[in-house]
Amino acid sequence: xxxxxxxxxxxxxxxxxxxxxxxxxxxxxxxxxxxxxxxxxxxxxxxxxxxxxxxxxxxxxxxxxxxxxxxxxxxxxxxxxxxxxxxxxxxxxxxxxxxxxxxxxxxxxxxxxxxxxxxxxxxxxxxxxxxxxxxxxxxxxxxxxxxxxxxxxxxxxxxxxxxxxxxxxxxxxxxxxxxxxxxxxxxxxxxxxxxxxxxxxxxxxxxxxxxxxxxxxxxxxxxxxxxxxxxxxxxxxxxxxxxxxxxxxxxxxxxxxxxxxxxxxxxxxxxxxxxxxxxxxxxxxxxxxxxxxxxxxxxxxxxxxxxxxxxxxxxxxxxxxxxxxxxxxxxxxxxxxxxxxxxxxxxxxxxxxxxxxxxxxxxxxxxxxxxxxxxxxxxxxxxxxxxxxxxxxxxxxxxxxxxxxxxxxxxxxxxxxxxxxxxxxxxxxxxxxxxxxxxxxxxxxxxxxxxxxxxxxxxxxxxxxxxxxxxxxxxxxxxxxxxxxxxxxxxxxxxxxxxxxxxxxxxxxxxxxxxxxxxxxxxxxxxxxxxxxxxxxxxxxxxxxxxxxxxxxxxxxxxxxxxxxxxxxxxxxxxxxxxxxxxxxxxxxxxxxxxxxxxxxxxxxxxxxxxxxxxxxxxxxxxxxxxxxxxxxxxxxxxxxxxxxxxxxxxxxxxxxxxxxxxxxxxxxxxxxxxxxxxxxxxxxxxxxxxxxxxxxxxxxxxxxxxxxxxxxxxxxxxxxxxxxxxxxxxxxxxxxxxxxxxxxxxxxxxxxxxxxxxxxxxxxxxxxxxxxxxxxxxxxxxxxxxxxxxxxxxxxxxxxxxxxxxxxxxxxxxxxxxxxxxxxx
Amino acid sequence: xxxxxxxxxxxxxxxxxxxxxxxxxxxxxxxxxxxxxxxxxxxxxxxxxxxxxxxxxxxxxxxxxxxxxxxxxxxxxxxxxxxxxxxxxxxxxxxxxxxxxxxxxxxxxxxxxxxxxxxxxxxxxxxxxxxxxxxxxxxxxxxxxxxxxxxxxxxxxxxxxxxxxxxxxxxxxxxxxxxxxxxxxxxxxxxxxxxxxxxxxxxxxxxxxxxxxxxxxxxxxxxxxxxxxxxxxxxxxxxxxxxxxxx
Lengths: 826, 247
Fold this sequence. Notes:
The complex is a heterodimer of chains A (about 850) and B (about 250).
Chain A: H1 2-11, H2 13-53, E1 57-61, H3 69-75, E2 80-86, E3 88-90, E4 93-94, E5 107-110, E6 117-121, E7 129-133, H4 134-140, E8 147-151, E9 157-167, H5 172-177, E10 179-182, H6 184-191, E11 198-203, H7 208-219, E12 223-227, H8 228-275, H9 277-285, H10 290-330, H11 345-371, H12 392-414, H13 419-451, H14 453-458, H15 460-470, H16 474-512, E13 517-521, H17 528-534, E14 540-553, E15 556-563, H18 565-570, E16 576-579, E17 588-592, H19 593-599, E18 606-610, E19 615-624, E20 633-634, H20 637-644, E21 651-656, H21 662-673, E22 679-683, H22 684-727, H23 729-737, H24 742-777, H25 789-816, H26 819-824
Parallel strand pairs in A: 5-10, 7-9, 17-19
Antiparallel strand pairs in A: 1-11, 1-12, 2-11, 3-5, 4-8, 6-9, 7-10, 8-9, 13-21, 13-22, 14-15, 14-18, 14-21, 16-19, 17-20, 18-19
Helix pairs in contact in A: 1-10, 2-8, 2-10, 2-11, 2-22, 8-11, 8-16, 8-22, 10-11, 12-13, 12-24, 13-16, 13-24, 15-24, 16-22, 16-24, 16-25, 17-21, 22-24, 22-25, 24-25
Chain B: H1 3-7, E1 9-20, E2 27-38, E3 42-46, H2 53-60, E4 68-73, E5 76-77, H3 83-93, E6 94-97, H4 109-120, H5 126-136, H6 151-164, E7 169-173, H7 181-198, E8 202-205, H8 209-212, E9 217-222, E10 225-231, H9 235-246
Parallel strand pairs in B: 3-8, 3-9, 6-7, 7-8
Antiparallel strand pairs in B: 1-2, 1-4, 4-5, 9-10
């Protein structure tokens, strides 16, 4: 039996190539994920070890910074060769446009350092000298010898001479923010740090362990004293957590791909068994038992699974290597240290196991089917048509799953929007998918008719024959298309979700404050002079100042805020979940819903608002929606001024007057903020553009990753088609004899694939839209649902096109076959 | 139906040679055959197994290429045509009835019958359709799929399909090979009726002397050569000729 299986496999290796490809891709993606994350991890731990190698003992602050006096004390411990402080704080670097650089505040650090390396120039030697990190120097166009401006804690500009650049090494936070380095004393002064974040110690001879004990004795309880090795493993662990996210995220897509591959395998083995009925029956005739037939199919699947998984591992190594290479080439700003690409034993075990198990499990049902072949089937000549009748069991299961799916979805949609509701909806979605899976063979026939309606009319006889062919084996068609459905469902789901989120965010912004410009400070507050300079221009209709200070609400620490009172009635329209902002007047307060929930406050309650020493009772008139722009605790402006004084602004929102020249309006806002480097202006279009960009970025990454599932399902379509072509060789020959041109025969198969693709896409988009909608209802009470019609249409068109691509090779083969040869064969 | 037209040939072959393979593996299936098939006549091609009768039919019908020689259907020499022109020629001028697997399982009997016309984008002649359907007795079976028809009924559908497009010639390859004797006799009777009443031209390959006896003329092949022919055959004369050839 074993020999028969092997010989059979060798004889039909071509028909298994596409199946293998599906497994190779699935396993390859999973293995590639491990290879990528392992490589990054290995690279990081190498650099951590290298970085920590220079440090023998590190004294690290726990809660409060280490007092500066500790440095001298540690320096005088016996056995200490050198002790260097690590200062860490903010250093708002001013770029060439006069504004602070980047989205995040640039970090301020100190030299000399055991952690950072000077890459060009020299370390800062005096108060007037500074360095910037290489990446910031490149993006901002700073050169050694330039004068750079940095803001201190009071937002006052100080100039430094740039004497060099440095590498931030393994510190991911510094890499993301960019950094300026000074001498320790200047760093303390500029960042306003009251102490050190860390003191790094080198040994004059004693072992690291003994030095640590000695240093710990003077460091006191406010510090954590570690050896270099401990520091390295700490860093590696915290970084490992972040690669863990990457790994889990990528693996999720890998498993989706593998699930699709499983469906493809299941279908392929199902068809192979159906086509080999006579061969299997012959085996039974000459004495093979059912068990042996079953075993031979399982063995075949195991061999295919194993061989493909091994190839998949190789593919994974390639994909991992490619990803590492691309990261290094196209993202030079992201400091990802990468070691040599490795295929760890763990990856090999996981890759082989998932591929093998998936293949064998997928082949189980077809193998069972094979055992049902009666020996007498060997003697029948005519192959039977596969009629399909929906059995009672199928219908019962479909109804049960359908009801459960509908119930869960209804519960999730009608429940209060929160995470539980979202999870409920998602569970409903999974059940709905199973319902579709069970009902597939039932619905695929009418759906093919629908999808084939137009081609049937456009392409005449070949079109109509293709429609018939696509529905002649509903089970096969259903499994083929459902594989495509998975990818399309998830893509549509993401598209609906992001479109709705974008629309909702836009609408929130528009309804609450249709601002044209937002002024915000990167560090500190916005001086009052800015708002003053903005007032009195006819081009600007509203200037709304938002202010916030730390205060007390019923003796709890909360920020207390206010907004320019005149705009509250006109431009700012806060949304209340209960009560109304209309009654907001002296003696009252509005509270955000999350605060109200924490303190169990409702409209009509009296709360005490103010400072610890001086609190005034105010009546709550409105609970604000958490997406409201207003401060969490909004008090009338006059009350705020009396209690907290005329504080600086947190942000200013500005609308241009109707019909005003927008260029002029923008110029006024730019001029008003010009003297303050940390105060930045963004127009609503810019804000939306950034938001859109972020959302588009996520969408394209997710779509790209789901693309793998689509590719695998296409292999499935190609596989099903080529096997069907093989099955229908004589039919094709008959059609050719009756006058169907080669091109028409090719067209017929192409249309069949097109229909399969469209059916998969139709089901997928419907599921995706329904569950995209359901999911958006669980995000917030007031979402403005958007159907990205263009994108959905694109998915459908792309699926159809993909089906056509999948048909190219099978159709060519069918058209090339000789008529006489095919008619003669049986 | 005049004597002049019946003498004219619907299909002719001159020096028809077909060799499969090359060198030592070469098989000479046809070794130079000159033959003509009269219009509005029913001709049977007979011969022992391996005599090349099926190959001859495939070459005559333009299903297979020839190694040497010429074949004409009507006034068109098909041995010069490319695949596309051949396909169009089959569509317009040739009908087929095969031994088995004649029908598309997805189509009903009626759709199968009309298939060649639809492929050619032609309308069926309703009067002819009715006449053909009544001749083969399929009126109440038109909506059935092939799997719901008996073997004899399936073959009658195939006959109707071949007749409906009024081809210049119908090639039938062992059309009764898979049928019981009664169904077979029915199908053969239809073929003969269609020649007599509809003026159809039919060339049939068979190894059954009884089937051959329905034809107006029988040509005999042996080892790729045309060796004998008889007019107005009976089962006995056909059998005698076959026995003589085997000897």
